Amino acid sequence: MTTATALTTAARVADAVKVYGVGDTAVRALDGVSVAFPAGRFTAIMGPSGSGKSTLMHCAAGLDTLTSGAAWIGDTELGALDDRRLTLLRRDRVGFVFQSFNLVPTLTVEENIRLPLDLAGAAGEAEWIDALVDTVGLRDRLHHRPSQLSGGQQQRVAVARAFAGRPDVVFADEPTGNLDSRTGGEVLGLLAGTVRRTGRTVVMVTHDPVAAAHADEVVFLADGRLVDRMESPTADLVLDRMKAFEVPS
Ligand SMILES: Nc1ncnc2c1ncn2[C@@H]1O[C@H](COP(=O)(O)OP(=O)(O)OP(=O)(O)O)[C@@H](O)[C@H]1O
């Protein structure tokens, strides 16, 4: 058997340019970024404020369109899809975790986790969902509503929901931004552990070197360009690399 999964790409962009606005007020948020996110890996996107992290994630995930260049989820080029197909791709092949949890308040924990499957009319794999519930440690909270949970528990529901449909890739945008450091660390451990145990793929935007250190690899953006990559990051190494971006006063 070959290690094919280590070589495949879950998502990528090539020569990605994103310009917001026109004329004098135009902002070139992405300025020719090419980057591949390998399947079965946890990749963090880091860079100074305004460097284009969220824009890259949104364009790679099909939440926004590129001005030029191309983006793929697996082998599917997003620019070739009409709106309906793009919506289906986001629903069926991409998972999302946001800073603000984004759970449906009227649904129970179990219903929130199953939501992507229910929207797709898919039964899902009972064993997979069951294992996810245990992974995120919510077995005794399945019938609670989000308002009855702590922030960390809500984000764990969001993590389980993101993986429920076995997506090609889970995109996480500052997933620990609303959590204290201990709870945030638990959520990051959960993301990293799920990648390692299940071979799923996570791409996370963060400005926090401690969060980035949970990833297998960090890609660094500056001024809309990919400027560096770091394998097996530690918080100190990431912090040092980030300091190099600071303009001396
Ligand atoms: N909808 C928009 N309209 C106009 N400009 C935008 C829009 N979204 C982002 N920008 C600009 O594009 C650039 C990149 O923004 P982006 O949010 O991708 O950066 P970021 O690295 O995620 O920043 P932060 O860490 O502060 O969240 C910034 O200059 C930002 O002001």
TrEMBL record:
Keywords: ATP-binding, Nucleotide-binding, Transport. It comes from the Bacteria. GO terms for molecular function: ATP binding; ATP hydrolysis activity; transmembrane transporter activity. SUPFAM superfamilies: P-loop containing nucleoside triphosphate hydrolases. One of its GO terms (cellular component) is plasma membrane. Residues 11-248 form the ABC transporter domain. It holds the Pfam family ABC_tran. This is Peptide ABC transporter ATP-binding protein. It comes from Streptomyces griseoruber.
